[in-house]
Predict the structure.
Amino acid sequence: MDQLTKDYLKRNYGIDYEVSAMADEAEKEIAEVFARYESVAEYNQYKVLRAFHDNYVSDTHFAWANGYGHDDPGRAVCGKVFASAFETESCIVGPFICDGTHALACCYLGLLRPGDELLYCTGEPYDTMETVIGLKGDGNGSLKSYGVSFSKVELTADMKIDIEGVKAAIRENTKVAVLQRSIGYSFRHAFSIPEIREWAAACKSVKPDVICMVDNCYGEFLDTKEPVAAGADIMAGSLMKNPGGGIAMGGGYVAGRADLVETVSYRVIAPGIGTDAGLMYDQTRRILQGIFMAPRTVCEAIKGAALFAKAFEKLGYEVSPRAEDPRNDVVTAIRMKSEEQLTAFCEGVQAAAPINAHYAPEAGEMAGYEDSIIMASGSFVQGSTMELSADAPLREPYTAYFQGALSYDHAKFGLMKVLQSLKDRGLL
Ligand SMILES: *Cc1c(COP(=O)(O)O)cnc(C)c1O
């Protein structure tokens, strides 16, 4: 950045010249990483545009409907655009799915019957899924309460999918095998499309009719293909994350094989009705604009992620993935050295937000999460982690999970606020 900008940051935000220089130096070292991200974003932008053209999206689709919404023009077109962009047979998307947890829960509760087993192939499920499965909480309404059993295959010591272990774990009653692409609150790499392809093929080799399902949260548009195009049968995700593009006001999606998506739609809406009803509540335009912007937004966010990773690597912190590593989700895990540092990190992110920057984040209870969580998110869409945000369970080893940013400049500003926040407390 030029001197004018550095002076501006110093004068207005108390960003020391040393701190702005650190951000600039980290940025210089990862120019080639940025170029890699840009080429994926470019391909995906054309792919998404093609999805609009193939489905003849027109301004009449934005119109309000009411009542049962049988003829809501936006519902069908949103499903078709998402299905085309993800290269799947079918997709259900809209405000009638609240979020990623709801989308995933509808898949499990819709596809599994009493006596069936759900097999997690990537170790611990994401925190909110544990309550859905019945591993935590009082179990009311969980899969367990319906007589659906659960088992999991741990990752290998180097945090890869244990392919042989997965093959051995698939049994007669294993109906759905799940791969969680993103890292959740773990310290590992997100899984790549080639890894997903290998996993799906391995599952099918022992049980051709096992349903291979991917929790695709945070994974959309990181590659030129999505999991279903690589052999999975069905996947689900959140519009508060990548495919919402920072514009969708909320929601989730389920995409994949048409027969499976239809069965899931009976759980989302009702048996026999499925996707023939459901109002879009005027969200069609935002959902479409969101997916249109998503390849670019994801690119901005991961450029920011690589910048954070590089800056903290240079300071000697353990980060995952490292700045130059291949990236398959938008999350960067950074190991802070104390609870104090973790709090200072989150305060820095919060102070950089456009909304609620004057509030300090405090650890607290969150529905669906067991540990006390500190969350920094001052976003236009509440809780959106496509926007600049960080969160962390308040437990050792004090890992901050950083993600999002609608623009790279904002991520860079976030980094400087975090570094300054640490410096001001004598923790850098
Ligand atoms: C965020 C997330 C979810 C849940 O999505 P929400 O929209 O927050 O409910 C599920 N799985 C993974 C891996 C996630 O990152």
About this structure: The two ends are 22 Å apart (CA to CA).
